[in-house]
User: Fold this.
Amino acid sequence: MSTPSTNHGQRLNRRPRRLRTSPVMRRMVAETSLEPRHLVLPMFVAEGLAEPKPITSLPGVVQHTEDSLVDAVAEAISVGIPCVDLFGVPLEENKDAEGSEAWNPGGILNKALRRLRDEFGDDVLVMADTCLDEFTDHGHCGVLREDGHGGVRVDNDDTLEFYRKMAVAQAEAGAHIISPSGMMDGQIEAIREALDDAGHQDVAIMAYSAKYASAFYGPFREAVGSSLQGDRRTYQQDVANRRESLLEVELDVAEGADIVMVKPAMAFLDVLREVADSSPVPVAAYQVSGEYAMICAAGERGWIDRDAAMLEAVISIRRAGADQVLTYDAVNIARRLRADG
Ligand code: PBG
Assistant:
């Protein structure tokens, strides 16, 4: 039970609690806002599915059929989400060493991009993941070449040729935004040039500029049926590094990136803040599969409040400087934001 205060109080000029006294007061002084327009929804579309297939390690996320994808995008639009980011999952038999389904206009990703653009026009921004890893039979983001010493390496410059073809095919299919995520050097310049040469000057590039070789991508590998053995440490960044991200961002901006990205988000908020402080272009951050899955898993066990923790994580990503946040929880969050008015 509370009892009336007998204490008339110390004289304190500064009482930060005054600005926390009511929900309206807190809303008025909040430094960071989160609105549906800040959210980007990553989505998966798989070839040869009869119905949507749940992804065990990403509760609430599915591999879509082309039809269920259309319905899910309509739902995202209805709650105010401005952009969806599409990943394609081809049949195993359609993977090859170079990932050629990636630039086949009839390949699953390009087909789905075209379907979405035809269906929704400019009502939603259709973003395409521009990387070979879902399409190569070895699961790497680039092509493998002999290194001349009995081994193989992911060849940077040969890969760029394939990225050009993939980006142009995606733009032809109707993507508004191309998002190169493979971490090859020079990929933004190569893609910008290829898009321009093909007449796609207005197609934007969201560059995965500072992308780390992270352990938090685990569930994503299930989501796309990854064929990867080994790791991506020769092309994605070492988690120990901070300064390197500033260089990656600087290069991507110089090469023509319209938006830069930091990924993952939560373990790299320091990097995000630093990039946001110096970037002349908008900065996105990706709450990756492992970040999302951890919160869901702890929530399922009743160890944390799932929705509250998810919102806190996404607001923190905004607070650290992200203009856009890619999150698998985008629709749920947007719905709750709208309900809160
Ligand atoms: C690869 C790619 C990855 C993700 C997006 N694009 C994984 C990887 O680098 O292995 C991860 C997204 C996530 O974990 O949610 N092109």
